[in-house]
Write a structure and sequence with these properties.
- This protein has a single domain, classed as Glutaredoxin (3-Layer(aba) Sandwich).
- By secondary structure, the protein is of the alpha/beta class.
- It starts with a strand and ends with a helix.
- A five-stranded mixed β-sheet has the order 1-3-2-4-5, sandwiched between helices.
């Protein structure tokens, strides 16, 4: 499954009501570390298709969501399990650290 682009309208349905764990990547097009994270996030989406939902929030296009989740630095990846935030990471990191957000 490809990454799902979220908006304020789709966030609740795709993340909070999801029956499987969700990784949400808060990013922006101008962010260098975000660009470095893109292949890691895309790889997780492909490798864990059907087991983990991978979503992206462009903070420039969705400032309300960024504010709601107190995103002060990007990239920030938040893991959601059973509709609740499990944990988060800020800045560039590796695949193992991202996957640990939903364990």
């Amino acid at each position: 499954m490809a990454e799902i682009t979220l908006t304020g309208k789709s966030f609740e349905e795709e993340v909070l009501k999801s029956e499987i764990p969700v990784l949400v990547d808060f990013w922006a097009t101008w962010c260098g570390p975000c660009k470095m994270m893109n292949p890691i996030i895309a790889g997780i989406a492909e490798e864990y298709d059907g087991k983990i939902k991978v979503c992206k929030v462009n903070v420039d296009e969705n400032p309300d969501l960024a504010g709601q989740f107190k995103i002060f630095s990007i990239p920030t990846v938040i893991g959601f399990v059973n509709g609740k935030e499990n944990s988060r990471l800020m800045g560039f990191t590796n695949k193992e650290n991202v996957l640990a957000l939903i364990k």
